[in-house]
Amino acid sequence: MNDLLDKLKKYRERDWSYDSGRIFSSMCTNPLDEALEAHQMYTDVNALDSKIFPSAKRLESEVIRKISALYSSTHAGGYITSGGTEGNIYALWLARKLRDKGEKVIAPISAHYSMQKACDLQQLKLIQTTLNDQYKAEVEDINEQTDKETIAIVATVGTTALGKIDPIREIAEIAEDAGCFLHVDASFGGFVLPFIKNAPPWDFEIESVSSITSDPHKMGLTPIPSGVLLVRDHSWIDELRMDIPYLDQTSATLLGTRPGASIASTWMALNLLDSNNYGRIVRRCMKLTRQLAEGIRGISDLRLVTEPELNLVSFTSNTSDVSQLRVALERRRWLVSLNSQPESVRLVVMPHHREEHIRSFLNDLRECVRELS
Ligand code: PLP
C-alpha cells in the first residue's frame, strides 16, 4: 500500500504545479483551501440520491439561488454540473425540448469546441458564423443565418481563445425576433464579469437570455469538477425531468450519479468569497493582464492579436513561428498554449500568478524572441 502511494506521489511530482506561476495555458487554478476541504468532506456523497444525502440538495439550492442573484435573476433554476461542456450539452438539450421543431444551432466560430460535441450528440446542425474585426460574434451574420429552423443561438462571454465578450444585447434581439433559445456560455467570464467595472450587459438582465453556463472550477476557485448551469425559468428544468424507478425519485440532470463534492466546494467558495474578495482577486488578475500586455507591446517583434477584455492575452510574431516560440518558452519551463484562429500564443492570467511571474516571463520571452530572430 505504502509503495503504491509512494509511486503515486512520484507521478504527481512530475506534474506541473500552479504554485510555480509558470502555467499560462490553463483556465484552472489552485482552489481555496476551504473549498478543497469541503470537497473532501463530500467525496462519498452522491447528489443523485437526496434520500440518503439531503444536505447536497439543500446546498445546491442555496448555490443556485446565490448565483442566480449574481446573474440578475430571482427565479432562475439550475444545477451544479461538471463544467462548461456539460452545461453546453444540457442547454441545447433543453432548447430542443422547449421548441418542438427545428434542428439548427447558430454559434460564432469562436464558441468552445464542446458546442460541436453537443450538436453531434444530439444530431443538431451547427452553423458557425463569422467574427468581426474585434474577434467578437458578427451580429449581421447571426441575423442572416437565423430562421424558423433555428432552435438556439449560442454566444460566449470570455471566448476560450481570446477572452472576447460577444455583444449579447444585439444577439438577444435576434433571438427574441426568432423566438428561439439564447444560451450564453460564460464558462470563463461568469466569475470575472460580475466583478469588473463597466462590464457590458450579458446575463438574465437581458430578457431573452434563456440559459447561462459558468464554471466555478475556472475563475471561481473551486476544485475540479464544478460548473453551474442556470435557466431563466426554473420550471423549464421539469421538461427534462424523469422518474428514477429504482429510487422512487426523479432526476432532471444530464448525469445520474453526481459528485456532491462539486456542490459542497462551490457552496463553500461562494460563501467565503463575498463579492469584495472575488472582486479583489479578479482585479489583480486584470492588472497583471495589463502589465503582461504592456510588456508584450514593448517587444518590437511581437504584436498583440487584440486588446484584452478579460484576463487573457494573445500575441503573434512578425518574424518567428509561434510554435517555435512555444517550444523555446517551454525549454525555459513556461507552459503556454497556441491558438489556431488566428495563429498566436495564448496566455491565461490566473489567480496563481504574481507580478514576479509576469516580469520573469517577459524577460524570458524577450530572450526567446532574440534567440529565434
Ligand atoms: N466554454 C468555454 C468558453 C470554455 O473556455 C471552456 C473550457 O475552456 C468550456 C466551455 C468547457 O469547459 P470544461 O472543460 O470545464 O467542460
TrEMBL record:
The modification N6-(pyridoxal phosphate)lysine is found at K218. The keyword Lyase applies. Keywords: Decarboxylase, Lyase, Pyridoxal phosphate. Its cofactor is pyridoxal 5'-phosphate. The keyword Lyase applies. One of its GO terms (biological process) is carboxylic acid metabolic process. GO terms for molecular function: carboxy-lyase activity; pyridoxal phosphate binding. Belongs to the group II decarboxylase family. Sphingosine-1-phosphate lyase subfamily. This is ADC.
